Amino acid sequence: MKKINTRFGEVEYDPDNLLHFPAGLIGLPNLRHFVVMPNKKQGPLFWIQSVDDPDIAFVLTDPTNFFLEYQLTPEDSERQMLHLGKDDDCYILSVVTVPADQKITLNLAAPILFAPKSNRAIQVIIENSSYSSKTPLPQ
């Protein structure tokens, strides 16, 4: 087990259980290893904490909790990066932003594809779509 100091206090983690982003995140290519933080509250949101930079953490959610029609199928190159087999699960996640005015938005233009079997994830950009990086939650 290893430890890092974060906004959540001291976090202990097993390096073998890290969420791995082989290409980093968009705009943050050096952030490749994350701890999925235990969810202390019931609800659709959870945190991932960067091990590469303990000052950085993100709130994620399954966007289909809010946008039922939201779908994405990984392309062959994305499947390779995720080490996805033919029948392996792949989940779509979105980064959540909670600004000072509390008008929560989801980044539907650049979702995260997560393969639980390999514990790998990639962030992709959806081109030529009406989705926004700051899509407000439905009213």
Tell me what the structure shows:
There is one protein chain. This protein is mainly β and 139 residues long. The protein has a single domain (2-136), classed as BH3618-like (Roll), CATH 2.30.290.10. Helices cover 5% and strands 33% of the residues. The strands form two sheets. Strands 3, 4, 5, 6, 7, 8, 9, 10 and 11 form a nine-stranded antiparallel beta sheet that branches. A two-stranded antiparallel ribbon has the order 1-2. A hairpin with an 8-residue loop joins strand 4 and strand 5. The longest helix is centred in the middle third of the chain and has 7 residues, at 76-82. It is globular. The relative contact order is 0.18. The model has no long low-confidence stretch (mean pLDDT 94).
Summarize the structure.
The protein is mainly β and 139 residues long.
Shape: globular
Question: Given the structure, what is the number of helices?
Answer: 1
Backbone CA Rg: 15 Å
CATH homologous superfamily placement: BH3618-like
Average residue-wise pLDDT = 94
The helix-and-strand class reads: mainly beta
Beta percentage is: 25-35%
State the oligomer: single chain
CATH class group:
Mainly Beta
Low-confidence region ranges: none
Query: How many domains comprise the coordinates?
Result: 1
Main sheet?
9 strands, antiparallel
